[in-house]
Structure formats: structure tokens, C-alpha cells
Amino acid sequence: MFPDRKSPPTRQRRLSESGYGVEESTVTSDRETSINDLRQLVQDFVDERKWGKYHNAKDIAISIAIEAAELLELFQWVREKEIGSMLKDAETSERLEEELADIMILCLNLANVIGIDAAEAVVKKVEKNRVKYPVELVKGSYRKYTKLKDDKAG
């Protein structure tokens, strides 16, 4: 489903030489790593630092919003036609990857803290969205579902 995206050797080398204990063999892909593996990685990171007492649902949710704003900041004032070249820039691409990773880490951490099965939640939400946004009404449209019914009636 997703293209096989391997990290370039320079990225693997930088990770293994970063001093954070990341081995080249631990650099992995979506195809090789389950959501549960990532949840455990995040939980181990929190546990090793004894940060659990600071990680409550409210503060994690706030942190998700802050990190999402940092991701948005990378796109602020960038014209639509400039985004393609922006994404080809190695430094910008790395910053985007890091901000997205921060958001994902926090989302997995929140799932751990409040006991949500992340895979089940995503599947349920996509199914709910299938009902809310039926293909025959939304295909090729950007409109919110509340406007779709008005358009069809009128």
C-alpha cells in the first residue's frame, strides 16, 4: 500500500552516530513496525525517564496542539506552487519529519495514557467518515458534510 521508503545511508549513519543509542539496525519502516511496537517504544522512553507522573491526558493533548502548530509554521507563508520544491530541500524535509514524529509520538503516548487502542480507533473513525462522507456525495468536493445535504436538496 505504501511505497517502500528506506532511509538513505547518510540518515542511518547520522542516527547511529548521534549518541542517542540508536543503532542502524533499529532504523525501520512502516512495513516492518506495528503500531503496538511504536506504542511500546514510546512507553519505554517515558518509563526510562520516570516521566509518567507528568504525562496526563490534558498536558499531552496541549502538547499535540503545540507540535501541530510547529508543523504548520513550516508551511506558513509558503505559496502552494512552492511546496513541491520546499519538500525536496533536505533540511526542510528533516524538520517536517521531526515535527510529524513529535505529533505521532504524543498521539501514541496519549493512547497509552488513556487506554485507547489506536488501530481500532482509526478504523472506527474511518468507517464513521465513510458514512458521513459517502463517495457519491463527496467525490471531488471539498465541502463539509453539513453542506453536502444542503447542496443535494437544493
Would you give an account of this structure?
By secondary structure, this protein is mainly α. The protein contains eight helices and no strands. Helix 2 packs across helix 5. The longest helix is centred in the middle third of the chain and has 25 residues. The N terminus is likely disordered.
Write a short abstract of this structure:
This protein has helices at 9-16, 35-48, 57-75, 83-88, 90-114, 118-132, 135-138, 145-153. It has 154 residues and is an all-alpha fold.
Instruction: Give the C-alpha Rg.
Output: 19 Å
Strand content: under 5%
Tally of helical runs: 8
Overall mean pLDDT stands at 85
The domain count comes to 2
Output the structural class: mainly alpha
Architecture of the largest domain, CATH level 2? Orthogonal Bundle
At the first level of CATH, the class of the largest domain is Mainly Alpha
- CATH topology group of the largest domain: Helix Hairpins
Helical content stands at 55-70%
In angstroms, what separates the terminal alpha carbons? 39 Å
Shape label? globular
- At the fourth CATH level, what is the homologous superfamily of the largest domain? MazG-like
SSE pattern: HHHHHHHH
Q: Can you count the beta strands?
A: 0
Point out poorly predicted stretches: 1-21
Sheet with the most strands, sense and barrel status: none
